[in-house]
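User: Please look over both lines:
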Amino acid sequence: MPEETLSGGQLAAALSNAVVRCMADVSGRGPSRARTTIGQDAVFVVVEDTLTRAERELVRIGDEQLVLRMREGLQRAMHEALDSEVERLTGRRVIGFMSANHIDPDLTVEVFILAPDGLNGRTAEGNGAA
C-alpha cells in the first residue's frame, strides 16, 4: 500500500509526474505535458511532446518507423519502473501494461491494467466477455 493514500486529482497528478520522471530518466528528456485518467481497473496516461531533438531530426528525414521502434524499446526498458510506481501510488498490482506512440501529433499513451480490487490479481470467474 502507498505510504499516504492519494485519490482523485492528487493521485492522477502523482501518476502523471511519475511517468514524466521515468521517461526523462530513460530518454534524457521528459514530455512537456501529461494527463492521467483513472478507471475502475485501469490507469491511462497520455503524454505530449515526448520526442527528443534527435528523434525529431529522424522524423524530418523520413525515418518515422525507426523512431517508433526505438520508442518501443525504451518503453520495454521503462516497463518495470513504471509498473512499480503505479503499484506504489495506487496500492494495486499492475497485471498488464500497454504502450503506444504517435508521431504527428507527438503523443504517447501508457496503459496500466490493475488487478481487480480485493482479488489480489486473480480475476473473478464469470466476469468479462467470452
Residues 120-130 have pLDDT under 50 and may be disordered.
